[in-house]
Design brief:
Layout: H1 6-26, E1 38-42, H2 44-55, H3 62-74, E2 79-86, H4 104-109, E3 113-114, E4 119-120, H5 124-143, E5 147-151, H6 153-160, E6 169-176, H7 192-202, H8 208-211
Antiparallel strand pairs: 1-2, 2-6, 3-4, 5-6
Helix pairs in contact: 1-5, 2-3, 2-6
């Protein structure tokens, strides 16, 4: 058996881990026993596109811009991004009313509204299924020892850039095998003053201590 260097082993392990994350997402619990999610993995070039798009949203969403800047640093070491999406309409016929319409038929007939982040209105159980799949993928990444984080910002950027066709809503799971866990110091790109100002604007009902952004 030939000698394999660490870098080669790490990249091969990351590729295999992404496949196992896809299996976990595919096999996750879902309402209606309908496996309607779609899943793709994105490489460095696609992630750079997403990073630039997020960074361009600075005036609209400082948090998206921060995550775009973060992603540009993330791709300097082995990493991957899984994008998980689904259609917005209901095929469950629960008629629960959670979407704002009395029946699934009314939801499905409603005029489609397109925004930066998704297309709506959407079935709440489809949204739950989507996030269960993302959590299953993230849990598999954790079991395999990868650094991991679920991102809504990177997902809506990928959605806006048509990185995955045939979906109306999406979320993403970012994984890395960097030497140091990169997902817990993203606020390093902002000064304390800028962070406080932005956080109060975007999350007026929370405090930094609540989400554990810093340690006292």
């Amino acid at each position: 058996m030939p000698v394999r260097e660490m870098n080669d082993l790490i990249q091969a392990g990351l590729d295999r881990a992404v496949e196992l994350m896809a299996v976990a997402a595919h096999n996750s619990f879902r309402f209606g026993k309908r496996n309607t999610i779609r899943l793709v993995s994105l490489g460095v070039d696609d992630m750079k596109d997403i990073a630039e798009f997020c960074y361009s949203l600075g005036d609209m969403s400082p948090l998206a811009a921060r995550d775009g800047r973060f992603l540009m640093e993330l791709v300097k070491e082995p990493c991957a991004l899984i994008l998980i999406g689904d259609k917005r309409k209901s095929d469950l016929n629960y008629n629960c009313g959670a979407c704002g319409y009395r029946t699934c038929a009314e939801l499905n007939k409603a005029e489609e509204t397109e925004s930066l982040t998704a297309k709506g209105p959407s079935c709440q159980f489809k949204n739950i299924n989507l996030n269960i799949a993302a959590n299953a993928a993230a849990a598999m990444a954790w079991r395999l020892g990868l650094h991991c984080r679920v991102f809504s910002t990177l997902a809506f950027a990928a959605f806006a850039l048509n990185k995955m066709e045939g979906v109306d809503v999406a979320t993403s799971v970012s994984v890395s095998v960097a030497k140091v866990d990169p997902y817990f110091d993203r606020h390093q790109y902002w000064t304390q003053e800028h962070w406080d100002e932005t956080f109060k604007k975007e999350f007026p009902t929370f405090t930094r201590g609540f989400i554990g952004a810093i340690e006292e």
